[in-house]
Specification:
This is GuaB3 family IMP dehydrogenase-related protein. The protein has 374 residues and is an alpha/beta fold. Helices cover 33% and strands 16% of the residues.
């Protein structure tokens, strides 16, 4: 049965759902929340929780990446960001937090025009490695060609190539595009790549040998891709489509499993189990962690899209501060808005739907129930 709707006589479109539009259905069996396991293994790395911290300057500094790793997740450092452009970004972060709204984009563009310094890439990654946590660093697809060797030589465990949209076949008449298949094949470290939001594009990325695929396109709190480019992918449908591509790829490759990581739209604790129910193995949190008291953004949140020199597709969003990073992940929470205790909420959801492993939650029954905020 097709779920296409007629937009007008000359155009049809598929109905797509955001995470807010779906809900999980409890089963006949329930469990004690203390009995459920929420660990996650990607490649050779096992962590306590299926959560990555987004490589955004408002969320991750070397210090918060280390702290996030010690709390059981994987913090990803933005190697295109302030920490690889400036010896001491703290005064800059202070300035960004105090910028008047009308001047914020222009000043961000200026700040991020400072060149990346390869020695700072090495220094920041060594800092995280010395702390004994999983080391993950991100480059944009445009800069991967230039800096990947510096990143690998500095000793990353996971290499993240993250753009607003990433394809296995980028066509350019101006420059030699990054050949992902050759690049990943020659690299000795596992690569996580994205964003992607369709099954076809995801299948192509999986065939490059990526260990994980990031699902999402302009869905985050600091993006305005829908307003500026007219492009948007509702997350529940995007995750389910990419999870189907993973199943097809497993058949095609003789059982090779590629992790699906939901990146964008996971703003509240209820979004985490919903993303997994749609087929994600893990999620990447941005705005949710930008609300931490330790976050470098000081209650503000922005991504690389906001700093684009020609077509900014994001903005500096005020997300406020709700508690420590530990409270955001593990509570306790004195709020009922889903901004604290993401892992406690995930465990309770798994317990009430009867699943003891995160992977099994992908089998839960879901219903479409369009959300009406009160």
């Amino acid at each position: 049965m097709s779920n296409e709707v007629e937009i007008g006589r000359g155009k049809r479109g598929r109905r797509a759902y955001s995470l807010d539009d779906i809900a999980l259905v409890p089963s006949r069996r329930t469990r004690d929340p203390e009995d459920v396991q929420v660990g996650w293994q990607i490649d050779a790395y096992h962590v306590d929780i299926p959560v990555m911290a987004a490589p955004m300057d408002s969320v991750m500094s070397p210090a918060t990446a280390i702290q996030f790793g010690r709390l059981g997740g994987i913090g990803v450092l933005d190697l295109d960001g302030l920490w690889t452009r400036y010896e001491d970004p703290e005064p800059i972060l202070e300035e960004i937090a105090g910028l008047p709204e009308e001047a914020s984009i222009a000043r961000l563009q200026q700040i991020y025009s400072e060149p990346i310094k390869p020695e700072l890439i090495t220094q920041r990654l060594h800092e995280v490695r010395d702390a004994g946590v999983v080391v993950a660093g991100k480059l944009s697809p445009q800069r991967t060609q230039k800096y990947w060797r510096t990143v690998v030589d500095a000793g990353v465990d996971l290499f993240v190539i993250r753009g607003t949209t990433v394809s296995a076949e980028h066509v350019s008449s101006r420059s030699e595009p990054l050949n992902l298949k050759r690049f990943i094949y020659e690299l000795d470290v596992p690569v996580i790549v994205g964003g992607v939001c369709t099954d076809t594009a995801a299948l192509h990325l999986m065939r490059t040998g990526a260990a994980g695929v990031l699902v999402g396109f302009g869905g985050g709190a600091a993006h305005s891709t829908r307003q500026s480019l007219g492009v948007h992918a509702p997350m529940a449908t995007a995750i389910a489509d990419v999870a189907a591509a993973r199943r097809d790829y497993m058949d095609e490759s003789g059982g090779r499993y590629v992790h699906v990581i939901a990146d964008g739209g996971i703003g509240r604790s209820g979004d985490l189990p919903r993303a997994i129910a749609c087929g994600a193995d893990a999620v990447m949190l941005g705005a949710a962690l930008a609300r931490a008291t330790e976050a470098p953004g000081r209650g503000w949140h922005w991504g690389s899209e906001a700093t684009h020199p020609e077509v900014p597709r994001g903005h500096r969003a005020h997300v406020g501060t709700v508690g420590t990073m530990e409270q955001i992940l593990y509570g306790p929470s004195a709020r009922a808005d889903g901004s604290l205790n993401f892992i406690g909420a995930l465990k309770r959801t798994m317990a009430s739907t009867g699943y003891s492993e995160v992977k099994d939650l992908q089998r839960v029954e879901v219903v479409v129930s369009p959300y009406q905020p009160s």
